Amino acid sequence: MADNRAKSPLLSAQFKAKVKQRKKQLGRPVSPDAELGDGNVVEDGAVVVYQSVTRLVTLHPGNIIKKSGRTVVLQEADALRVAEAADLPVPHVYGTERTPDGRNCIILDYIQGQTLSDIWMDLTEAEKRAFARQLRAILEKMRSIPAPRAYIGDCKGERIYELRLRSTYTGPPCHSEAEFNTYLLNNLYEQTPHAIRRALARRQRTDHRVVLTHGDLGPHNIIVRDGRIVGLIDWESSGWYPEYWEYVKFLQRMVSHKGDWTAYMDDIFPREYLDELADYIALSKWQPL
Q1: What is 29-109's CATH number, 3.30.200.20, 3.30.1360.70, 3.40.430.10, 1.20.58.340?
Q2: Can you tell which superkingdom this protein's organism belongs to (predicted)?
Q3: Which residue, of 59, 102, 159, 272, has the fewest CB within 10 Å?
């Protein structure tokens, strides 16, 4: 039988020492490096939690997650630090590494629980609504956080990083919503008729608030335990974006979801952005998805 175990590099001894020291400073338990049990075990007693062609997520002794791969976005760590500072339910980040073969790694706490997608289909309508309203409270808190300065982009202010259904869009940070609108129009197909470009540009606004945005609020990125949301994960497409961005991305990213998650949008979002949604759909018709 073929050996399917991952060949990812070990956490360096120096880095493990830093993690343990930081956990002690935070008053968190430090576990010995011991085997975690049977299953898909890789080096140093770690267990594979998720694996794809481009990334690997492993659980290490001491409830530490290592997320690694060439498509891992290190700016996610910056977003998690912003979210943790605002007392949002996110894993604590211990640091980042880059492996000798060019893979990015984020080392963070493991949040115990299940993804909301794992249990969603078994929930009653009242239970679904309760989770939706908890998420609404989290969103309202995110939107109350003052933006550090006037720009639109990731939490470090380095770039725009946008996930579509099958494409990833990047660009320099924008210093105003007008610049952000130009970024959106610049991604149109080259053959887009000028009349459509003018029509889309005429619809764009420049007066939205810029707020902390997750960018992929699907049930697969929500950790729950005992009826409560205890974690939001996968902040790779997050940052400071116009207030409507979370709303349109919520629908775009969940277009293939089989459940009725989107039926609870009115419970999740403090307000609707129907005009912006219609404009984004029109824009997307002339861009690669």
Answers
A1: 3.30.200.20
A2: Eukaryota
A3: 102
